[in-house]
Amino acid sequence: MVENVAQGQQVFTSNAFLVTGDRTVLVDAGSEFDAVAEVRERDAALDALVLTHTHSDHVGNAADLIDAFDVDVWGFDADHELVDHAVDDGRSVRLGDHSYEALHTPGHKDDHLCFYAADPGTLFAGDLVFANGSFGRTDLAEGDRDVLVESIESLRDTVSPDLAEMHTGHGPSVTGDPYSHIEAALRAAKF
């Protein structure tokens, strides 16, 4: 099961997805809200924190989560102070009851990862793409529009057109034809 513990927060934060099952994981920590209380409210025993990237709105609550649940942090950049374990492109990562492939997708930030599981057809897209053809900013440090386009093309070529759900770093998750939202983001990013 996937639940956004940041939903409804009225602060500048990313989404933070609690994925429960064999290995209960929080995908991104969010910021400026009590993520520890949100996880505890769901009676979850957190096993790990997995980061799509290290912008402050995605990692702001990380230290509190680490302290409260004594969890390790997984992310692309092992040199980042919060990351305990490097996740390389193509590596398999267990989220809940399923194995997800880590996809290195820079362009928004150099350490950006997406996580994709063909079965059950789920994508954690971070800030690479969003609902309705939106895509991640490239005007921040480490942003590069051409690299972002390449990453979206790679994502489109990797995920199945039958993708069932896409959980993004901001805004709503997409359960109605999420593949078309990736295609729309690619068209918009190329424009």
Structure write-up:
The protein is of the alpha/beta class and 191 residues long. It folds into two domains: 1-85, 4-Layer Sandwich (Metallo-beta-lactamase, Chain A); 98-191, Ribonuclease Z/Hydroxyacylglutathione hydrolase-like (Metallo-beta-lactamase, Chain A), CATH 3.60.15. Helices cover 24% and strands 23% of the residues. The strands form two sheets. A six-stranded mixed β-sheet has the order 1-2-3-4-5-6, with helices on one face. A hairpin with a 4-residue loop joins strand 9 and strand 10 (122-126). The radius of gyration is 15 Å and the shape is globular.
Give the helix/strand layout:
Elements: E1 2-4, E2 17-19, E3 25-27, H1 35-41, E4 48-50, H2 56-59, H3 62-69, E5 72-75, E6 85-86, E7 92-95, E8 98-104, E9 113-117, E10 122-126, H4 145-158, E11 165-168, H5 178-190
Parallel strand pairs: 3-4, 4-5, 5-6, 10-11
Antiparallel strand pairs: 1-2, 2-3, 7-8, 8-9, 9-10
Helix pairs in contact: 4-5
